[in-house]
TrEMBL record:
InterPro entries attached to this UniProt entry: Antitox_Xre, Xre-like_HTH, Xre/MbcA/ParS-like_toxin-bd
Ranges for domain Antitoxin Xre/MbcA/ParS-like toxin-binding: 92-141
Organism lineage string: Bacteria, Pseudomonadati, Pseudomonadota, Alphaproteobacteria, Hyphomicrobiales
Organism listed in the record: Pleomorphomonas carboxyditropha
GO molecular function: DNA binding
The protein's name in its UniProt record: Toxin-antitoxin system antitoxin component family protein
Antitoxin Xre-like helix-turn-helix domain sequence ranges: 27-87
Length: 144
C-alpha cells in the first residue's frame, strides 16, 4: 500500500502550513525541492505527530531548527526528511484507523523490528522503508 501525497501533506499541516496546494506526487516533489516553511515542523509538533526530541533525531537538530525558524524555511534536505517521517505517520494512521493508535504503535518497541520502536528507525531511509513494509504487512493481515 502506498500512501498518497495528499495524506502526507495533511500530516505536515496541509495547504495552510505549506502555503500551496499539493494535488499529487509531482507537486510534493516540487514543494520539497523548494523547501517547506518552518511552520510545518511547528504544526507537526503542536498536532502531537512528533515530539521535539523526535524532530531532533529524525529531521534536524534543535539548534538548526531554531535557525530555520528565524529563516522561515527548511532546506530541501530537511523538507525531504520531514516528508519521510510524515509518510510513515500517514501510513500508520491509515493502517490503524486512528492518529492515537498510530502514535502509540510508532513509539512502542516491536519484535519484528528487532525490539526497537518504529519511530527510532525514521532517521534513515532504509529504516523508514522497513517500518513501511511492516505497516503494509499489518494492513494486509500478513503475520508481522
Amino acid at each position: 500500500m502506498s500512501i498518497e501525497a495528499v495524506k502526507v501533506v495533511e500530516v505536515v499541516g496541509g495547504e495552510r502550513t505549506l502555503g500551496k496546494t499539493i494535488r499529487n506526487t509531482r507537486d510534493l516533489i516540487a514543494a520539497v525541492r523548494a523547501g517547506f516553511p518552518a511552520a510545518t515542523v511547528e504544526y507537526v509538533v503542536d498536532a502531537g505527530k512528533m515530539s521535539l526530541t523526535e524532530v531532533d533525531f529524525a529531521v534536524m537538530p534543535r539548534k538548526t531548527l531554531t535557525r530555520r525558524r528565524k529563516a522561515g524555511m527548511l532546506t530541501a534536505e530537511q523538507s525531504d526528511r520531514l516528508v519521510r517521517v510524515a509518510r510513515v505517520i500517514a501510513l500508520a494512521e491509515e493502517t490503524f484507523g486512528s492518529p492515537d493508535k498510530a502514535k502509540a504503535w510508532l513509539r512502542r518497541e516491536t519484535g519484528p523490528l528487532d525490539g526497537v520502536s518504529p519511530m527510532s528507525l525514521l532517521d534513515t531511509t532504509e529504516g523508514a522503508t522497513q517500518v513501511e513494509h511492516l505497516l503494509n504487512r499489518i494492513a494486509y493481515g500478513i503475520a508481522a
